[in-house]
């Protein structure tokens, strides 16, 4: 007996795989949620003590939240006068301390000039002149002469085109002042001051946040680096690396940079250094010897009374 072949024999059996993505779009809600929704439709909203308890709990929660917000707002208003008073007191103390520091600085300058006058009266003419030369060379004395002034200023603030807020302008960095001062020394400068702060062999130019400190004293823009030196100093500085770099930065970012010659420029003396220790000289130099560094003619040390030698 020959049997008939089964239907589909000779072909590969078909495999049916579940299509979860199609099922997700077709029935987006979980079956459990569907059963709960159907049960609520059949039983209706909660009635009796259950309905009243749910509404009561919601009302109590809203009342408590409103009470807490009211107490917090009242406490904030009550503490505001105290905070404002404390802030005003701190601002007043800062201004008072600044005024006191300014008075003490003026008094220190007066005492320093008095000490210098008494010292010159005790010394002979040649010894006083040599002392003024050494003070001018080390930055401890005021000097006057021809020189240049390098001015650097931050770029003006720009408004953001999207948010409308003021964007921070490109700022002058402490490294810019360092580079300018170093190239001025290389160009032949004999005395340099930044915004009236005289530079010495131990001076530092650093940053603290957005502030620039010269010998731990803050300076603000625009920054003026004043230098006394020979007549060729401006030409040599214009050819220096820092001058070329700052001119390029000024073109691209909007920073202000300029160099100008100034006649009869006066630079103040640096603050007295705080000596931590001293050692006697092994071979002290006689006072009448001609040893020592003599300043060039472009820098004139000033006597305590303000005049030249």
Largest beta-sheet details:
6 strands, antiparallel
CATH topology of the domain at 123-156 and 169-271 and 295-301: Alpha-Beta Plaits
Task: Count the E strands.
Answer: 11
Rg over alpha carbons: 41 Å
Percentage of helical residues?
Answer: 40-55%
Can you tell me about this structure?
- There is one protein chain.
- The chain is an alpha+beta fold and 309 residues long.
- The chain has helices spanning 20-26, 31-43, 49-122, 125-138, 174-186, 233-238, 241-253, and strands spanning 143-153, 158-159, 166-167, 191-194, 197-198, 205-208, 211-214, 217-219, 223-228, 256-267, 300-301.
- It contains seven helices and eleven strands.
- Strands 1, 4, 5, 9, 10 and 11 form a six-stranded antiparallel beta sheet that branches.
- α5 packs antiparallel against α7.
- The radius of gyration is 41 Å and the shape is elongated.
- 17% of the residues are buried.
